[in-house]
Write a structure and sequence with these properties.
- By secondary structure, this protein is an all-alpha fold.
- The protein has helices spanning 3-13, 18-24, 29-36, 44-54, 58-61, 66-83, 90-95, 101-107, 111-124, 127-133, 140-154, 156-164, 166-187, 193-211, 215-230.
- Residues 7-61 form the HTH cro/C1-type domain.
- One of its GO terms (molecular function) is DNA binding.
- InterPro entries: Cro/C1-type_HTH, Lambda_DNA-bd_dom_sf.
Length: 234
């Protein structure tokens, strides 16, 4: 993304017209129009003014990935809030960043959409690796227990508040069922939907049981129990 596109994104994210934006950075509307269309390049004074007025670091203004940086910052701040036991909302993320509520509502219509973004962003980092570990449908439960759960436990401070809260737990459960059912059925087309869903339900119950109790004390005990109970179901 060009500098001009970044400037336009900053302006529209704050719900400003070119005229309103020009007044804030002390230049003409025509200049803003030319900047956004990359007809002219901003000088360092203009870049510093935009940075100061809108709380955007200079390196992000001239970056090729400003829009991506917005989502990265939202994800990072939200993880920090969860690690402190607070469920992120559009309002609370706005208070902990330079992003206005208006900007955040352009990205997420509701608090649920924000939470789904966090869940999906975390899961996408490990989903493809996990699915690559599974070579046949008989390994599904075992691979989840041995490969997926340890990763979840490493992120306990971030995930535990999500599982403790009933509303966010429902969002996670629905996401896991929808995404993993679809992906596993694509990977193993000869496997029935019922079989996949039964195995996913077992895995999800295991995750919930760990994160809604004293997870450190129960992790080995619970996984050993599930390994024993499900050894004939794999």
């Amino acid at each position: 993304m060009s500098v001009g596109n970044n400037i336009k994104t900053i302006r529209t994210n704050h719900g400003l017209s070119q005229e309103q934006f020009s007044e804030k950075i002390y230049c003409s509307t025509q200049t803003v129009s030319k900047l956004e269309r990359n007809i002219i390049s901003p000088n360092i004074t203009t870049i510093k003014m935009i940075s100061h007025k809108f709380g955007v670091p200079i390196n992000e203004i001239i970056s090729d990935s400003y829009e991506e940086n917005i989502f990265e910052k939202i994800y990072f701040v939200s993880k920090e809030m969860l690690s402190q036991g607070s469920i992120p909302t559009i309002d609370s993320v706005s208070k902990n960043t330079s992003f206005s509520k208006k900007l955040l509502k352009q990205k997420f219509k509701t608090d649920q959409e924000l939470l789904l973004f966090l869940i999906k962003s975390f899961d996408m980092k490990i989903q493809s690796k996990l699915l690559n570990y599974i070579h046949n449908q008989n390994e599904i439960i075992q691979i989840f227990i041995n490969k997926y759960l340890p990763i979840l436990m490493q992120n306990e401070s971030f995930l535990k508040p999500l599982y403790h809260n009933i509303s966010t737990r429902v969002i996670i459960i629905n996401y896991l069922k929808e995404v993993y059912s679809k992906n596993l059925l694509m990977k193993f087309p000869n496997c029935s939907t019922l079989e996949i869903n039964i195995k996913l339900n077992i895995i999800i119950e295991l995750i919930i049981s760990i994160f809604t109790y004293n997870s450190r004390l129960h992790y080995k005990e619970v996984t050993a129990l599930f390994n024993d109970i499900t050894k004939d179901l794999n």
